[in-house]
Amino acid sequence: MIIPQADLIRILDYLKLKIRGLERVGIYANAVDVLKKDVEELKELKSRGLGIIYLGLESGNPGVLKRIKKNATVEQMIRAAKRVKEAGMLLSITVLLGIGGVEMSREHAADTGKVLSEMDPDFVGALSLMIVPGTPIEEEIRSGQLVLPNPFELIQELETMIANCRFTNCFFASNHASNYLPLRVKMPAEKEQALALIREVLEKKDPVLLRPEYMRAL
Questions:
Q1: CA pair distance 170, 59, nearest whole angstrom
Q2: Positions in the chain short of pLDDT 70
Q3: What is the number of other CB atoms lying within 10 angstroms of the CB of residue 184?
Q4: What tens digit of pLDDT does each residue of 159-192 get?
């Protein structure tokens, strides 16, 4: 989305010309880049085939966003989401379980659910934080600045997040390879059913119910 409008239009037109039967193009974006375009510009892109925008929220907690250097505020995230929806495009949001560490676990999950509700996306993908060697966050963990939640604490975050979500019509998935408990939930219809399942897993705390560590991946 950071690509200038005229270039994006040329790209979309070229794709439509070269790919027979092309129905929809998706694009990754951040909140700041979305907000650089007004609603009419976004509508123009939609008319050229841009049908869905993927936006990384990561967390709805201002402190967590600042710590991970997200370079966007909660308010900007919400404004960007509403602009995408106003333009008539589908909106897919990504969030990260565990990104607040143990210390901010509950606040991160609750705030993220509340911000997601305000964004009211069509899709949400919840991933679990996985550490890449050599990154600044690995150093934070090594030094003790950040303590990662254990598998069941990550699932507790998922429960808290979903419990705080109020959607019009959203497909919420935690079936990414990084997650311990894969779920696919149509909300609001299947919300309570999903929460009941998560709470049963949390009550039993049986590792057999989780995706094995060797099967997890970025």
A1: 18
A2: none
A3: 11
A4: 999 999 999 999 999 999 999 999 999 999 999 9
Structure token digits, residue 112: 């993220």
Return the pLDDT at 218.
Answer: 83
The DSSP bridge pattern shows strands 123-128 and 170-173 to be parallel
Write down the pTM of the prediction.
Answer: 0.95
pLDDT tens for each residue of 58-81: 999 999 999 999 999 999 999 999
What is the four-CA torsion angle of 99, 100, 102, 104, rounded to 10 degrees?
A: -160
Please give the order of strands across the beta sheet that includes 90-97: 25-29, 50-58, 90-97, 123-128, 170-173, 184-187
